[in-house]
Design goal:
The complex is a heterodimer of chains A (294) and B (303). By secondary structure, chain A is mainly alpha-helical. Chain A is built from eleven helices and no strands. Chain A is globular, with a radius of gyration of 22 Å. With 303 residues, chain B is an alpha/beta fold. Chain B is built from ten helices and 13 strands. Chain B has helices spanning 44-51, 94-105, 110-118, 134-145, 164-179, 191-197, 215-222, 236-243, 264-273, 288-296, and strands at residues 6-14, 19-28, 33-37, 59-64, 79-82, 152-156, 183-188, 200-205, 208-214, 228-232, 248-251, 257-260, 280-284. The chains are: A mainly alpha (294), B alpha/beta (303).
């Protein structure tokens, strides 16, 4: 144990700040346990989701359209029987829970700074707090992209094998399918950023996690049920369109391969998601800039 | 940033009901250890956090080498700070904690190992932070502060949780760093420790400055200007007569005499001349503890 530094240490020339910060944030993730716990969760639920989607596709391919239902519902039913729709749905399996886990990773990346009081060290190193939050947004998006790559690498062969059993082509060459897979990547990236934004807004780790999961799992379903009841009771057709303002529904809409009758176009979902990230992230950055760290 | 002088000017922090820091103006010089003293709740931590851009002041400014912390280019190369004992992720190893900081600051990763060696924490480098003792956490904090080899070191209660050996180590380290010309600004409520460590002290209470200056000056200044000498003798009247009118005596404990106005050598010489027997002759140096209690008396710590 020495008490003095004999010669001044060589610290070298620092690289560009954004890259430094992103490297640091990435190190924060891989030097703790949360990332692989979330990844295992996401992959386990991916397997479950693929199974459910496969059963759904099997049902759609084999069942005749029921007689005596309204023409509108009939059209929707026919559309789900579309091979391309089912292929896109299978290729993007696991999205619902995958997005939730990416969001949780984003939340943890931000809130652990306060939970473990590392915000002090982080902001001492980088007093420019907005740069820190931007780096977290970028790294969360990156992690989302990695999970997307992982899930897609699993769903692509699985789907191709499944479709082959029905003597159907893989449809990987079809633009709607390619588009759905690409948009799925966008969804994963956006939900990671969404998590970071939520984390800045709700600084408490437990509070933010519980709120996000509850809203994601229960809130979405609850609002959909309420809207359906309103639509049926009051006869207001437009009411059900409100559900597309919910982030989870918007991202599901974004990755649909084909446009189902009665649903908005896929890019509406994309716009809704981007709006959420811009508003929540912007608000988070503004609040974080002046907030006291103690 | 050339010299590493810390200048705090009119610094104020108003929370909803409490004025934690109230128009504080102090200067901390480089090459010295400056103790920042005050009872708990006096506003020490808030002041340090404002200095480091972690808390936004209501009014006033704080600069390090003439620059606000937020405006420093690569702050860790100029200023190192140790703020709270538990400031690392519980599940991350000490080494990884430092590497995360290195990555953000643009330092090579081996710098993490160098500072771990510096603070004697290398054997625990790969252990998770939750397994660290309080003393090890403080050492990790110092290691993090030393990553950029800064000219200015700011420490908030660094002796907290250290055992006597650790406190001694800390004292030697901070003294050595000050001797290298660095600015060492260290807060504490352990006053006896500051008396051994600090060259200068700044004393605050209720968010306001009470005293500042070199330790000796603050102590003697508050002790009424003169040094008291405790004398024990069977012939007090004879001794006082020999000392003359310059000296005044007050009765002390157990029949001792507390003499002010003359120093101990003068009393010894007078006793020799008058052939007075002396049983005790001690310069009664007021300690910082007593001065501190007198200075901050009546200013409630809990507001």
């Amino acid at each position: 144990m020495t008490t003095t530094t004999a010669a001044p240490p060589t610290l070298g020339r620092p690289g560009p700040a954004p890259l430094r910060l992103m490297r640091s944030e990435l190190l924060k993730i891989i030097t703790t346990n949360a990332w692989w716990l979330l990844m295992i969760g996401a992959l386990a639920l991916l397997a479950l989701a693929f199974l459910v989607n496969a059963i759904g596709a099997d049902f759609a391919f084999n069942q005749p359209t029921p007689e005596g239902i309204p023409a509108e519902d009939r059209a929707a039913f026919e559309a789900t029987r579309n091979e391309v729709y089912q292929a896109a749905n299978l290729y993007t399996s696991g999205q619902f829970f995958g997005l939730m886990f990416v969001m949780l990773l984003g939340i943890v990346l931000m809130t652990s700074e306060f939970f473990h009081q590392t915000a002090t060290a982080t902001f001492l190193t980088t007093p420019h707090r907005t740069a820190v939050v931007l780096a977290k947004l970028a790294v969360a998006a990156l992690c989302g992209a990695v999970l997307w790559a992982l899930t897609t690498a699993l769903t692509v062969p699985a789907t191709a094998v499944f479709l082959q059993r029905y003597d159907m082509p893989s449809h990987l060459g079809d633009w709607p399918v390619q588009r759905a897979i690409m948009l799925n990547l966008l969804a994963y990236a956006i939900w990671g950023m969404f998590g970071v934004s939520l984390g800045v807004l709700l600084r408490s780790q437990i509070g933010a996690t519980v709120t996000a999961v509850a809203l994601y799992l229960i809130g979405t379903a609850a609002v959909q049920i309420i809207l359906t009841i309103l639509e049926q009771q009051l006869g207001w057709d437009w009411v059900s369109n409100i559900q597309y303002a919910l982030p989870a529904v918007a991202s599901a809409l974004m990755v649909t391969g084909t446009d189902l009758p009665g649903e908005p176009a896929w890019w509406v979902g994309g716009l809704v998601l981007v709006a959420y990230v811009v508003v929540a992230g912007g608000l988070g950055v503004l609040i974080n800039r002046r907030r006291d760290v103690s | 940033m050339s010299d590493g002088q810390i200048v705090v000017s009119g610094l104020t922090k108003q929370y909803k009901r409490v004025r934690a820091v109230d128009g504080l103006s102090v200067v901390v010089e480089p090459g010295r250890v400056t103790g920042f003293l005050g009872p708990n709740g006096a506003g020490k931590t808030t002041t340090l956090r404002m200095l480091l851009n972690l808390v936004t002041p209501t009014a006033g400014t704080a600069t390090i080498g003439g620059v606000r912390y937020a405006d420093l280019d690569q702050p860790l190369r100029h200023v190192g700070a140790v703020l709270e004992a538990s400031s690392a992720h519980k599940g991350r190893t000490g080494r990884n904690h430092l590497r995360v900081i290195c990555a953000a600051a643009g330092f090579p990763a081996r710098r993490a190992d160098e500072v771990l060696d510096l603070v004697g924490l290398a054997p625990a480098a790969k252990r998770k932070f939750k397994g660290y003792s309080l003393g090890m956490r403080q050492r990790l904090g110092i290691a993090a502060a030393m990553l950029g080899n800064p000219r200015v070191l700011i420490l908030d209660e660094p002796a907290n949780g250290l055992d006597p050996e650790g406190i001694r180590w800390m004292r030697d380290l901070l003294r050595a760093l000050a001797d290298q010309g660095r600015t060492i600004f260290v807060s504490s409520h352990l006053l006896s420790e500051m008396e051994l460590l600090a060259h200068d002290v700044i004393i605050i209470a209720a968010g306001r400055l009470v005293a500042q200056g070199p330790v000796e000056q603050v102590i003697s200044g508050m002790a009424g200007g003169g040094v008291r000498v405790r004398v024990r003798t069977p012939q007090p009247e004879k001794l006082m007569a020999e000392l003359g009118s310059a000296a005044t005596a007050q009765p002390g404990e157990d029949g001792a005499l507390l003499v002010t106005g003359v120093d101990a050598p003068a009393i010894g010489a007078a006793a020799l001349r008058a052939s007075v027997e002396l049983h005790e002759l001690v310069a009664d140096r007021p300690d910082l503890e007593r001065v501190f209690l007198e200075l901050t008396a009546g200013k409630a710590a809990i507001r």
